[in-house]
Here is the input.
Amino acid sequence: MSDDMCPPSEARDGAAAADATFRDAPSWRAAACGAAVVLCLALAMYALPRRWLYGFVSLSDPQTAWIHVGVLSSALDLVCWCGALLVLQSTLGIRWTYFGVSRRHVDAQMWRACMAVVFCYLAAGLVSVVESVATRLGDAIPTSTAVEQSQFAHHAAAALRSPEAGTVLLLMAIAACAEEILYRSLLLSLTRTVLHSATWAVVITSLVFALAHWRAGAIEMLYAAAVSLVIATMFVRRPSLIMAALGHGAYNVTQLLLPTSGA
Here is the structure.
């Protein structure tokens, strides 16, 4: 969101906050070590088998068991990234605002989250155009993973209209918070410090975010990259974990309510 879309006082506060956040950054060596640790931990978490979580839920209804397993899995990720955030903050000795953790101007952050959803849909619309053109040219070949992802979206959308709707919303909220802490608060902030470039940090972390969705197929990776570019750009301009998590979560929930792709 550009400064001319905000009240003058909010624009000045946002610019000042961004400048202060950049000044509070750790050394590039410390940031590089932190980023390496986070990436290694992320790879370990993605490689961690999650089937054992089924032992903690009731299998009397297989159609909804996956929702409860998803909540447990996302909660595990959230605990992991909150712990990593706490350790890095205390180890590097920097302010929480460097990671976008702040309770200032919560109303403005919620407004920016709404704007993030709008911009995410605009970016997703561009990807939809590319997908339509590729389909007409015969270049888009559905893969088994893409089919599985569409089935997941179908089941999730159906569950959102069932008595399990509250659990689905909880799943979307926890997953969005976990991903935003990892990709925006940690990786984006640290990468920006290492590279001394907000642009390259946005691009690289968006590519990593897209690669994390590789199981969903190439088209879904494009959607993920587009959404990440929007949220990361807004995060760089005014670091706010609240904005990023709310925007990401709201986008994913509305995507389930509509017959389109999510991130």
